[in-house]
């Protein structure tokens, strides 16, 4: 997929190509061997004569702490912070970078790489890094849930359960899209619990019973499942929910999603918004998923577009663009 055209007037940073790079690398995230990844990064940057510091993280609990250290170094030395890892790692580091006046780059290592592909950033580390070296800054919209950043989507209900089961299957059978699909089929065999949601949007309140609510911030992912994404171009997020259905109907919705026709389904509701408050009747806390990472949050939940744009470094040289 070719990324949208850069708007020069919206660019907050101009890169010289000499900025030092502070690379936060989650050694337990994504595909492949962490040492190979580090060796690849060092080789390419040494060949390019680019100053850099690798900041590997083994304990996920120290990811934010390491990202904060990287931001401080980048602020002091007019540098750039880069996150290397899966969607959760990219999201966690981006949450620290946002609003700090520091350009942000990514070396995506996740299974689907929706965020990177939306901006033409390759999943191949060498290609992504060489594209970064000749990069430019593009302001990127991000979403917020109760003050925490997400890049691709945030959800509650059935979708977090699907993600938990998918991760368990990946640990057992390996990371692949086929494994992800199979784990989803197995999860849907269990009757999902219906949530009683109270949605407050544009000053109006409505009640909805649904097994899940997903809020999307990624055009590529929405296009793949067949949900209209025009709201993203108007600085909005997209909410999606299904009305109560049985297991067979859920399988039907899954198939529609695979064939990019989910938006045509009678049981699917979707709408764009600037700010959405969600209360869950009978629940003070709910399990949520943000860019694949599961946690618990107090209700009500507030989804909104972040006030600041993320200063994302994207490839300027067309030969390094991911056009998939």
TrEMBL record:
Keywords: Kinase, Transferase. It is an enzyme of class 2 (transferase). SUPFAM superfamilies: NAD kinase/diacylglycerol kinase-like. Its EC number is 2.7.1.-. It comes from the Bacteria. One of its GO terms (molecular function) is kinase activity. SMART domains: DAGKc (SM00046). Residues 16-149 form the DAGKc domain. InterPro entries: ATP-NAD_kinase_N (IPR017438), Diacylglycerol_kinase_cat_dom (IPR001206), Lipid_Phosphate_FormReg (IPR050187), NAD/diacylglycerol_kinase_sf (IPR016064). Pfam families: DAGK_cat (PF00781). Gene3D superfamilies: 2.60.200.40, Probable inorganic polyphosphate/atp-NAD kinase, domain 1. This is Lipid kinase YegS. It comes from Achromobacter anxifer. The gene is yegS.
């Amino acid at each position: 997929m070719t990324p949208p055209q850069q708007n020069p007037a919206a660019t907050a940073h101009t890169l010289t190509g000499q900025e030092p790079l502070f690379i936060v690398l989650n050694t337990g995230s994504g595909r492949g061997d962490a040492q190979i990844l580090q060796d690849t990064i060092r080789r390419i940057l040494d060949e390019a004569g680019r100053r850099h510091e690798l900041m590997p993280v083994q304990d996920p609990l120290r990811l934010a702490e390491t990202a904060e250290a990287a931001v401080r170094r980048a602020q002091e030395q007019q540098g750039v912070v880069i996150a290397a890892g899966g969607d959760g790692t990219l999201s966690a580091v981006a949450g620290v970078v946002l609003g700090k006046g520091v350009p942000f780059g990514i070396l995506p290592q996740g299974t689907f790489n929706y965020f990177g592909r939306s901006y033409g950033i390759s999943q191949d580390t060498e290609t992504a890094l060489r594209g970064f070296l000749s990069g430019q800054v593009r302001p990127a919209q991000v979403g917020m849930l109760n003050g925490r950043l997400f890049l691709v989507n945030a959800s509650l209900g059935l979708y977090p359960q699907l993600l938990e089961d998918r991760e368990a299957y990946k640990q057992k059978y390996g990371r692949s899209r086929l494994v992800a699909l199979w784990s989803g089929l197995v999860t849907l065999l269990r009757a999902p619990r219906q949530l009683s949601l109270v949605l407050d949007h544009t000053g109006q309140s409505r009640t909805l019973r649904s097994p899940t609510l997903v809020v999307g911030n990624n055009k590529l992912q929405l296009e793949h499942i067949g949900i209209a994404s025009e709201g993203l171009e108007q600085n909005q997020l997209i909410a999606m929910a299904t009305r109560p259905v049985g297991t067979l109907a859920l399988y039907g919705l899954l198939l529609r999603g695979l064939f990019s026709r989910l938006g045509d389904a009678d049981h699917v509701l979707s709408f764009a918004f600037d700010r959405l408050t969600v209360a869950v009747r009978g629940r003070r806390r709910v399990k949520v998923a943000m860019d694949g990472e599961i946690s618990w949050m107090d209700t009500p939940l507030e989804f909104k577009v972040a006030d600041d744009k993320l200063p994302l470094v994207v490839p300027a040289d067309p030969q390094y663009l991911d056009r998939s």
